[in-house]
Amino acid sequence: MTYNLEEKLSALYDGELDANEVDGILDMLEKDVSLQKKLSQYALVSSSVNNSNNIQSIATKKKPVNYGFWFSNAITAAATVLLTFVAINQLEFSRMGEDISAKNQLNIAMSSKEAKDIVSKTEENLVDHVMHVINNPDLDNATPYDIDLRNVGYNRLSSNGRKFNKGDKNFILRIEKKNLGINKVRYWRHGDKIIHIVPLADGRVVTIYGNIDAQSAIKVANSIGK
Amino acid sequence: MNNNSNNDDFLLIEKAQNGHEGAFNFLMTKYYPRVYASLYSYTKSREDSEDLTQQTFIKVWQQIKTFRGDSAFFTWVYRIAINLAKNHFVSSASKKDKLNISSTDLDFEFTTFTNPESDLMHDQSLIKIKSFIDQLPESLKTAFTLRESDGKSYEEIALITNTPIGTVRSRIFRARENILNFISKELGDDV
Fold first, then answer.
1. Which uninterrupted H or E stretch holds A131?
2. For chain A, how many helices (H) and strands (E)?
3. Closest-CA residue in chain B for A217?
4. Dihedral over Cα of A49, A50, A54, A58: its sign
5. In sequence order, what are the residues at sequence separation of 6 or more whose Cβ sits closer than 8 angstroms to the Cβ of residue A185?
6. Do B24 and A33 meet the contact criterion of CB atoms below 8 Å apart?
7. Structural domains of chain B, ranges and CATH numbers in brackets
């Protein structure tokens, strides 16, 4: 990363970069993780300066929720699918393997090597699952065909499928019996669709892939979990 | 979108409205900490703030084409965030949405973040950062403060400080770099 490039990033951050240079910087950002990190840091400095009474501006840095936005690009490169990561937490960041502070936090949070191994495995499983959902949306031998979502207002689009809709919301639903190792709802974006992965209390995982907002997806998942 | 409005992010917003994901990522990265901090002020819950921040940016992405530039972009995003937060608390169902997690599941929440001592540490870090900014060379501090705290454009700063715009741009960048170096070297894991 050159000094000049960073200065341009700073200018773009302030909305002061020449229009004909914006695309170039955005293209570089897609590829350059260190530039992405720099952008995050600029945001944190702004936040700390402008929210001096709020400790969260710094706590947010410590808890690296904002570092994962460009995580998608690593996956994209690996899987040749445009997949943008939206839900951020510490686990995703651990995969980026570049922030000492975050690594230290992970070390604190995870009390054993076994825990680290589980985290790593969980992430691999999760990415595999998401890629499978995107690449093979109709390949699903586990989800029952008779799921009825009319109690939450959704109609099945086909008699032998798992596609549902209500108004302009439509999605494919999957239920995995295996626990993917997540304990909170995760969101991913793929093009104009969202992938919601919702863990149920009984250990199953509901995946909802389509044009549907998070709250509605959780409502659908919970109706299945009842 | 009204490009005469007070939107520094006009170009990025316009690109995001046309489906440019990189531009949206930029905006999201830029505003994530501020949205999170705002939501934390509102919810006083890290978990809720994190979830609501994620939901906010999903909604922003879904609705960004409706942003007309009548207000600052952050104001518009903030409005979405606060409405989500209000709905979150108003809806009793939101409580039901919190999924039961088996005690055998790993909990990777960083409990230190809920520790008052930790909060105090961060608070002190903020004081250190502000103190460092105060000690920056006058030219850097002036340019940076006019930009970050007062929201002045480069052109306005150039007029105020009687320096070329290119110099303003360079000073703001160097101020940021100095602050980041300070954070990295002096505060380390405190931030």
1. helix A113-135
2. 9, 7
3. B97
4. negative
5. A87, A196, A197, A198, A199, A214, A218, B51, B99
6. no
7. 10-97 (1.10.1740.10), 120-190 (1.10.10.10)
Structure tokens that stand for B74 in this block: 């952050």
Going by C-beta distance under 8 Å and a sequence separation of 6 or more, which residues neighbour residue B90?
Answer: none
Shortest CA distance to A38 belongs to which of A10, A15, A68, A69?
A: A10
- Contact residues on chain B for A89, CB-CB shorter than 8 A: 50, 108
Report whether pLDDT(A130) > 60. yes
Distance CA B175, CA B148 (A): 11
Render pLDDT for B139-159 as a digit per residue (tens, 0 to 9).
999 999 999 988 899 999 999
Is B9 in contact with A82 (Cβ distance < 8 A)?
no
Structural tokens at position A63? 């808890």
Half-sphere exposure of A157 (CA within 13 A, CB side): 13
In chain B, what is the greatest distance between 2 CA atoms, to the nearest angstrom? 64
Tell me the per-residue pLDDT of A179-223, one tens digit each, with 9 for 90 and over: 677 777 777 777 677 888 888 888 888 999 888 888 888 889 888
Q: How far is it, in rounded angstroms, from Cα A61 to Cα A134? A: 31
- What are the tokens at B88? 């979150």
Contact A29 B33 (CB under 8 A): no
Min Cα distance B146 → chain A (Å) is 12
Can you read off the two tokens belonging to residue A34?
């260190």
Whole-prediction pTM:
0.55
Q: Which of A26, A225, A139, A2 has its CA nearest to residue B28?
A: A26
| Inter-CA distances, B21 with A23, A30, A171, B155, Å | 12, 10, 22, 29
Nearest-Cα distance to chain A for B161, in Å, is 17
Best of B54, B60, B74, B156 to substitute, by most chain A Cβ atoms within 10 angstroms, is B54
| B30/A82 CB distance under 8 A | no
Domains and CATH numbers, chain A: 3-122 (no CATH), 138-225 (3.30.200.100)
Q: How far apart are CA B106 and CA A221, in angstroms?
A: 22
